[in-house]
Design goal:
Blueprint (H helix, E strand, L loop, with lengths): L2 E2 L5 H16 L5 E10 L11 E2 L1 E14 L4 E6 L5 E5 L12 H10 L6 E7 L9 H16 L6 H15 L7 H8 L4 E6 L5 E5 L5 E7 L10 H16 L18 H25 L4 H17 L6 H12 L4 E5 L6 E7 L3 H14 L6 E5 L6 E2 L2
Parallel strand pairs: 1-13, 5-7
Antiparallel strand pairs: 2-4, 2-14, 3-8, 4-7, 5-6, 8-9, 10-12, 10-13, 11-12
Helix pairs in contact: 2-3, 2-4, 3-4, 3-5, 4-5, 6-7, 7-8, 9-10
Length: 384
């Protein structure tokens, strides 16, 4: 049976965060803030190479209920756990606290706060799915702390703080795309983000005859196990070998002249993926040619699978089954090594494609996937 992830109304999520706050800390929070998960339409593993990416926000969000404290202690709890924790602000450091607490404490640390807060979390963003549950948490906490302490910090400063939290305290070498879309998203649009200077442009994502099916393979997606960092390091080494500061603007053909075939494959992916992002943005700015857009998605997956080697059996099965069932195109999305795939499908074929992906996973003995349809949604904000 095909499993669909229900959309949870943000007011209902806020209620869940408030209830967890009351039972853990007592009394009422000062407010509730939310931030969305995201799907990257195209442009994978190019953010840390100065590339272009094209993500959009999901209606699946993380809510935090928060209240400022008068001491230098940060406490947090989540509906995803029976446990809660507390830490002195002075004790926040790489790996301290660990787990999901690193994303919460890391934001406070990056913002340079000297006063603490009580924070309760309730999320509808699937953890480990490659839909950026970590950035949703960071960004919800960031907008909450900004408001609670009346910080003079614009969204760019909050993005930077969230990136530092993830890189330096949580120890995940992400490039900033996820935090940027969570803070800058507009409903009905994808964000064309230039990771060289972090300038951005809203791109209409209007697909009246199609929709984007998100396939959570339920294969664990982890960025802190070293794989993501190794890929990032390989790009830094390739830049050094080529004598360039970034792969941005490098002709994809340049990879053919490299003697190290693994480095050549990594460079070929990054340079060709940047071109695909540019082409996708051009298509979306016009009346979208669904077949052409789908072909770009599928080419992206092949490149991620073969040249960058970040796919997995679960992701490959989902993409293959989607295409066999008539999707315009499909690819893995997110960091890879598990997580989610997306398929561009005719609206009349959504259920059939999802059924085909489920059947293929079952036949291969893979985890049963979960599905959601992606509606481009808005950015982090105060909910109440």
């Amino acid at each position: 049976m095909t499993a669909w992830l229900p959309v949870v109304d943000e007011a209902e999520l806020a209620d869940g965060a408030v209830e967890r706050f009351r039972t853990t800390f007592g009394g009422e929070p000062d407010g509730v803030w939310i931030a969305p998960g995201r799907v990257n339409l195209i442009g994978e593993h190019v953010d840390y190479a100065g590339g272009l990416v094209l993500p959009f926000a999901l209606p699946y969000v993380t809510a935090v209920a928060a209240r400022r404290r008068d001491d230098a202690v940060l406490r947090a709890a989540s509906t995803g756990s029976d446990m809660h924790w507390g830490i002195a602000l002075s004790a926040i450091a790489p790996g301290s606290p660990d787990g999901w607490g690193a994303y919460v404490a890391g934001v406070s640390w990056a913002l340079g706060l000297t006063m603490g807060a009580d924070i309760a979390v309730h999320s509808a963003v699937p953890v480990g799915s490659g839909l950026s549950s970590s950035a949703a948490l960071e960004c919800a906490v960031a907008v909450a702390l900004r408001d609670l302490f009346d910080l003079d910090a614009d969204r760019r400063a909050l993005i930077d703080a969230c990136i530092r939290a993830e890189n330096e305290i949580a120890g995940a070498s992400t490039g900033g795309m996820d935090q940027s879309i969570a803070m800058l998203a507009e409903p009905g649009h994808a964000l064309l983000l230039d990771c060289l200077d972090f300038s951005s442009r809203q791109i209409p994502l209007d697909l009246p005859d199609a929709e984007i099916l998100v396939i959570d393979t339920n294969a664990p997606h982890r960025l802190v196990d070293g794989q993501y960092g190794r890929r990032r390091a390989s790009i830094e080494k390739a830049c050094a070998d080529l004598g360039v500061s970034t792969l941005r603007g490098l002709d994809p053909a340049a990879a053919s002249a490299m003697t190290d075939q693994v480095s050549a494959a990594r460079v070929r992916h990054v340079t060709s993926e940047i071109v695909r992002v540019e082409q996708a943005a051009e298509l979306l700015n016009a009346t979208p040619d669904l077949a052409a857009l789908g072909a770009l998605l599928t080419a992206s997956h092949r490149s991620l699978r073969d040249d960058y080697e970040v796919s997995s059996p679960e992701l490959d099965s989902a993409v293959r089954a989607s295409l066999d069932a008539g999707a315009f195109g499909a690819r893995m999305t997110g960091g890879g090594f598990g997580g989610s795939a997306i398929a561009l499908v005719d609206r009349t074929r959504t259920e059939a494609v999802a059924d085909a992906v489920t059947e293929a996973a079952s036949a291969a003995g893979l985890p049963t996937p979960t599905f959601l349809t992606a509606t481009p949604s808005g950015a982090a904000h105060r909910q109440r």
